[in-house]
Write a structure and sequence with these properties.
By secondary structure, the chain is α+β, with helices and mostly antiparallel strands. The protein contains 10 helices and 6 strands; from the N terminus they run ααααββββββαααααα. A hairpin with a 7-residue loop joins strand 3 and strand 4.
Length: about 375
């Protein structure tokens, strides 16, 4: 029998419509939950609207690896359920189109999404995680020293301001400024100023304070026993924060695939690596995870088509509930297997177990659906 192209395009169009609807809903829910957690780290850091937009865009990139497969499963179940409820599946079978003809366009869509998810998992998601960490560090550094009404410690310096006004770019306008500098134990000093401007130079990794009308009090006595105080009208004060802006060693989820593979090879060879952020088994487990997770859309196609095409009332509500159960089961099993590999000494290949289980379940459901037809 020839490939029913018109029917395939029709099925693909139905699934795409429901998938886009599910992607919008799932993305909003996941993005909102993630933003709430990130905002806990940014409150008081002086972040701006553009910072929030940047963080949200990075979060969308990170969450797409999970939202896209779940949305596709949602689209498959609802589209198949709607066509089964409207007796379209029965009509297709009456025309001689079996389960293979219905599954083919859905599986091809799942395979294409799996290829896209693989690119996300291997390159795009880790890069977004590194950029997210760098963005959060920049925002925290930019605002952590200028929170009014609090003594803020930065290394061996303590900074206090009475009030703060937002300026342009990285600039902050401050009033009632006190700085205690203990960076040089032999020459400590305290600075008081009526007002000033604070600017972060990200390229040089420095804060520049342009102070006006104040005094510098030196905490060392002169030979004649007199206390030293220097009055100024304008005073520029710089201090280094490059150590806070420098990128930290990324965790396995944020490492480039080449670096992650290199660490795993060194660990397999018995080398001891001192600067690991997590336990050694975590690196092998995360390497296997990057290649195992992208199979989710193709597996969801195998499972979703035979389950969705069963004719029943309330197909849409049934599809939503079934989508939640299948997606939760898949990713919960992935997390459990990953935990076994990291904490219990199981081989890292156990991360592939959810794929094997869902492939077996999908094959069983397809055979049963073929026999029933």
């Amino acid at each position: 029998m020839r490939w029913p192209r018109t029917l395939s395009f029709y099925v693909a169009r139905e699934i795409t419509a429901y998938t886009l609807l599910g992607l919008a809903a799932i993305s909003v829910v996941m993005l909102t939950r993630s933003l709430v957690r990130v905002l806990d780290d940014l409150i008081g850091a002086g972040f701006r609207v553009e910072d929030l937009v940047s963080v949200a865009s990075l979060l969308v990139t990170i969450l797409t690896i999970y939202a896209l497969p779940v949305s596709f499963l949602f689209g498959v179940l609802l589209a198949m359920g709607r066509m089964a409820a409207d007796v379209e599946i029965t009509a297709m079978r009456a025309c001689g189109i079996g389960i293979r003809g219905i599954l083919l366009p859905v599986f091809l869509m799942g395979a294409a999404l799996s290829a896209l998810t693989l690119e996300l998992a291997v390159e795009i998601e880790p890069s977004a995680r590194r950029e997210m960490a760098a963005s959060v560090r920049r925002m925290i550094v930019r605002g952590i020293t200028v929170e009014p009404g609090r003594f803020n410690s930065i290394g061996e310096r303590t900074v206090y301001v009475d009030a703060r006004d937002e300026g342009r770019g990285n600039e902050r306008r401050l009033r009632g400024i006190m700085i205690s500098d203990q960076s040089d134990p032999e020459r400590p000093f305290v600075v008081f100023a009526e007002k000033g401007r604070l600017t972060l130079d990200e390229e040089r990794g420095e804060f520049l304070l342009q102070l006006e009308r104040g005094d510098v009090h030196l905490d060392q006595e002169r030979e004649d026993g007199r206390y030293q105080r220097v009055h100024f009208e304008r005073f520029e004060y710089r201090f280094d924060v490059s150590d806070m802006l420098q990128p930290q060693i990324p965790r396995p989820r944020a490492m480039q695939i080449e670096d992650l593979r290199r660490v795993v090879e060194r660990l397999d060879a018995g080398e001891e690596i001192e600067d690991l952020r997590e336990t050694p088994p975590s690196y092998a487990a995360h390497l296997q995870r990057r290649y195992a997770l992208p199979f989710a859309p193709a597996l969801f196609a195998l499972v979703g088509v035979p389950l969705g095409m069963q004719r029943r009332r309330g197909a849409r509500s049934y599809g939503v509930i079934l989508c939640a159960l299948l997606a939760f089961g898949y990713y919960a099993l992935h997390s459990f297997c990953e935990l076994l590999a990291i904490e219990s000494g199981f081989p890292p290949e156990i991360v592939w177990l959810p794929n094997v289980v869902y492939a077996a379940v999908g094959a069983f459901l397809l055979v049963r659906a073929r026999r029933a037809s």
